[in-house]
Amino acid sequence: MADTTLLPLHRADGSATYSKNGYSVVAAVNGPIEVQRRDELPEEAAVDVVLRPAAGVGGLRERHLESVVQHTLRHVILVSAHPRTLIQCTLQIVTGPEDDSVTCSLPQAASDLPVLPALLQASILALLSTSIPLSMTLTAAFVAVNSKDTLVLDPSVQQIKRASSIHLLAFSSRGDLLVVESEGDFTIDKWEEVHQKAKLICHGEEGDESESEDVSMKSDDISKLENVLKDAVERQIAKEQRWNQTIG
Amino acid sequence: MPREAEPSFNERAFLLQAVQDNIRLDGRALDTYRNLDISFADNFGIADVRLGKTRVITRISASITAPRHDRKLDGIFTITTELSPLASPAFESGRQSDLETHLSRILEISLRRSQALSTESLCLVAGQKVWSLRADIHVLDYDGGLIDACCLSTLTALRHYRIPDTSVKGGELTVYTPLERDPVPLAILHHPLCVTFNFFELGEKWLVDATLMEQQCSEGEVVVAANPQGEVCLLQKGGGGEMDALVLLRCVEVALGKVRELGKVVDGALERDAKRRDKGGKSRELRAENER
Amino acid sequence: MATQTIVLPGEAISSDVLPIPSNPSLALKLGPGLRHTPPSTITSVLAGTLCIDQRKNAIWVENNSGRYVPQPNDLILATVHHSSTDWYHCAITPHTTLAQLPQLAFEGATKKTRPQLNSGSLVYARVLSASKHSDPELVCYNPSTGKSEGMGELKGGMVFDVSLGMARRLLLARQREEGGIAVLEEVAEKVAFEVAVGRNGKVWVKSGGVKETLLVGRALQETDSEGLGVQEQGKLVKKLLRGM
């Protein structure tokens, strides 16, 4: 299951760490702060996302990931509440699962997708640790479809390499689909199956405890991903309210 | 461009008065470091250093490339530091601030030019293939003490890192995976660390490991990089107010002591981590396959 | 009175959680952290504890994290950044737009006899207005009475950072009963000092000497960071006084 901490950093307004499936990401949010004139929006807050990879300075892949996260956050943050300001989100990948630390001289053509759920979750958690108003929260699920056409949740690096398609889906707290990114060969029906499963993982459905047989799962904890968010917030509030325990 | 907020006149006056009385805001002595905490990830070569509120993670990675044409027998070692808004809203990503340039230069000289890591040892096939090692320094939290923390973090990560074992037979290079042969430690020739001094009262008083506010109220800075053997690798006084030469020499003396102290903390952390990993290691020794 | 329901942004507040007003003609007041979508949906926009006040028929989300955002009527500590013809431009929090403090917004100030503040001066002021569309405006006196009421330039002393939650507790009328703060009372028995608490998480302390001021500051900061209860605060103060 995911490992989360809120407010591990002192200087940033809000921060969080999120570790799952070999990925460990630190996110920091600063805002609302002063914005540069050229980025200023008259009626809304500007949202800026910076992604730092674990090793190296980052290139095209990081820019693409930043853009996905930035567009998602713009929907989640109530940008009209703080016009002419900047909300700055910085993401740092600390570790990844394929941490060979030895790379060939040719850059690997690995996919962007596997790190995206951790990036999205970390940024949401960091936002929750600030007082920036949000219209919803978000949870992300990562599903692979293997050669036997079964769905694999939280696939390992090997499973991703051998999968026929991989999918990232992020849902809002209301159950609406916010982000979809898919790679590989798949049919619409298969995607629909992936969609249903991902929705179940993130959002949960009342009374639907049945497991369909063609889903293989690594983790035995099927609790809604949304509970991860709530749990992190509860722990933080409990820490802040320690002094209150002694008041009758 | 955002800049760190300057302390108010009251705060500055108070801090200077306190220093005059040899008192620091957090109760430390003038020559004491903040609490230093070092931890490691599961993978080799990632060191997480916390010095008070400052936090730095350095990560070592390696790849095989052709050597530089003017240094055919040496491997390549690069250190990158990029300050991001994670550490402080005053840092802008994509723009190299003065602090970053200063930091890069100090680390470049104390760790790279001092040959702490033997670049000769990184050579695999002379003139054709060498290891290119990268140290990526990520500053997560900034409250002063940046140079000291980054140097600690990078040196610790280098000492912690294990590079794949290799062998060359007739010009053919074989790189062994961790399953075939255990990765080996790097050839580190000596352990330089940096100690930063910030001075006050026209160079009469100095303190070690300044917090951000102490740094902002100080007149100037002196950085000494040295190893536990007592050899000085770098002595830098970058502008700022005047300082008596004898006070400067005293700083170097204090630095030598501090480097030994800090070095012991690093040794301790590495030992504890080795023990933690070795729990599995003992059982590996008992396996039937052994080196003949 | 506060009930401990934790809400996340996007959660709708169900009507059975809403307070039952003792006075039925009193309209429901939505405090910070809640958004009203007509006709009758109330959603949370912050992560925090849902608080209900039966008497005032008010409901809000308690959230003390993140960056301070200026609210009208808040008392804050600001640093003067620079001055222009008629105003001082002050920083309430770092990296945000400067707030404006009219040079005459002090007790008894006229064009000839106004206080001269320099860059770096510290002021204790009240937020007069703050909206998302304009820069915040400050005053260092009460416009209706003309009195400073403790506001104005602060000379000497030292500023200590505390969390926004702690600042809020310190500003309560009944610090000990509602905010669980006894530390200042305990210190005051042995050490004389002055404090000015800013809702923006800054506390100004002035005492006899450096050691005394640091004692008060450290007592506050440790109470805050360790979440000490009233008893523990007493122990902390005793320990600090012994160390003096």
TrEMBL record, chain A:
Gene3D superfamilies: GHMP Kinase, N-terminal domain. Keywords: Exosome, Nucleus, rRNA processing. It comes from the Eukaryota. GO terms for molecular function: RNA binding. GO terms for cellular component: cytoplasmic exosome (RNase complex); nuclear exosome (RNase complex); nucleolus. Residues 10-133 form the Exoribonuclease phosphorolytic domain. It is found in: Nucleus. GO terms for biological process: nuclear mRNA surveillance; poly(A)-dependent snoRNA 3'-end processing; rRNA catabolic process; rRNA processing; U4 snRNA 3'-end processing. It holds the Pfam family RNase_PH. Belongs to the RNase PH family. This is Exosome non-catalytic core subunit rrp46. It comes from Alectoria fallacina.
Automatic annotation (TrEMBL), chain B:
It is found in: Cytoplasm; Nucleus, Nucleolus. One of its GO terms (cellular component) is nucleolus. It comes from the Eukaryota. Its main location: cytoplasm. Residues 34-164, 192-256 form the Exoribonuclease phosphorolytic domain. Pfam families: RNase_PH, RNase_PH_C. Residues 273-292 are annotated as: Disordered. Keywords: Cytoplasm, Exosome, Nucleus, RNA-binding, rRNA processing. The keyword rRNA-binding does not apply. GO terms for biological process: exonucleolytic trimming to generate mature 3'-end of 5.8S rRNA from tricistronic rRNA transcript (SSU-rRNA, 5.8S rRNA, LSU-rRNA); nuclear mRNA surveillance; nuclear polyadenylation-dependent rRNA catabolic process; rRNA catabolic process; TRAMP-dependent tRNA surveillance pathway; U1 snRNA 3'-end processing; U4 snRNA 3'-end processing; U5 snRNA 3'-end processing. GO terms for molecular function: mRNA 3'-UTR AU-rich region binding. InterPro entries: ExoRNase_PH_dom1, ExoRNase_PH_dom2, ExoRNase_PH_dom2_sf, Exosome_comp_Rrp42_subfam, PNPase/RNase_PH_dom_sf, Ribosomal_Su5_D2-typ_SF, Rrp45. Belongs to the RNase PH family. This is Exosome complex component RRP45. It comes from Alectoria fallacina.
TrEMBL record, chain C:
PANTHER family: EXOSOME COMPLEX COMPONENT RRP40, PNAS-3 RELATED. It holds the Pfam family KH_6. This is Ribosomal RNA-processing protein 40. GO terms for cellular component: cytoplasmic exosome (RNase complex); nuclear exosome (RNase complex); nucleolus. It is found in: Cytoplasm; Nucleus, Nucleolus. One of its GO terms (biological process) is exonucleolytic trimming to generate mature 3'-end of 5.8S rRNA from tricistronic rRNA transcript (SSU-rRNA, 5.8S rRNA, LSU-rRNA). It comes from Alectoria fallacina. Belongs to the RRP40 family. Signal peptide: none annotated. One of its GO terms (molecular function) is RNA binding. Residues 157-208 form the K Homology domain. Gene3D superfamilies: 2.40.50.100, K Homology domain, type 1, Nucleic acid-binding proteins. InterPro entries: Exosome_RNA_bind1/RRP40/RRP4, KH_dom_type_1, KH_dom_type_1_sf, NA-bd_OB-fold, RRP40_KH-I, Rrp40_N_euk, Rrp40_S1. Residues 28-67 form the Exosome complex exonuclease Rrp40 N-terminal domain. Keywords: Cytoplasm, Exosome, Nucleus, RNA-binding, rRNA processing.
